Amino acid sequence: xxxxxxxxxxxxxxxxxxxxxxxxxxxxxxxxxxxxxxxxxxxxxxxxxxxxxxxxxxxxxxxxxxxxxxxxxxxxxxxxxxxxxxxxxxxxxxxxxxxxxxxxxxxxxxxxxxxxxxxxxxxxxxxxxxxxxxxx
Length: 136
Known about the structure:
Elements: H1 2-28, H2 32-45, H3 59-63, H4 69-73, H5 77-84, H6 88-99, H7 111-114, H8 122-134
Helix pairs in contact: 5-6, 6-8
């Protein structure tokens, strides 16, 4: 009985590992992490971002992007803006205004470098980006 249980657990762990590796390979082949997140989201929800807006009644789903805070911190402002389909300059200006940043920044700066001046969270930037995308 113990031997069967051990074999079963090992098999389950092997299947989980293979699934994660396959998902990573799939994500690498579909256009980078931003595109991969959108495709995974579309596959999970059964619809794409096309036709989203206030009329569709799915504002939260349409403008939400699945990205971790860690990934956001190491991404440039232009990369983050591209995830929501907004310009890097527009996002940078909104972040500078929202948090009162005074140092000179560019869209090529990573988000974490802006956080050196004021300790805002990536979730706050995500909310700003969603608002900008919603109001385009």
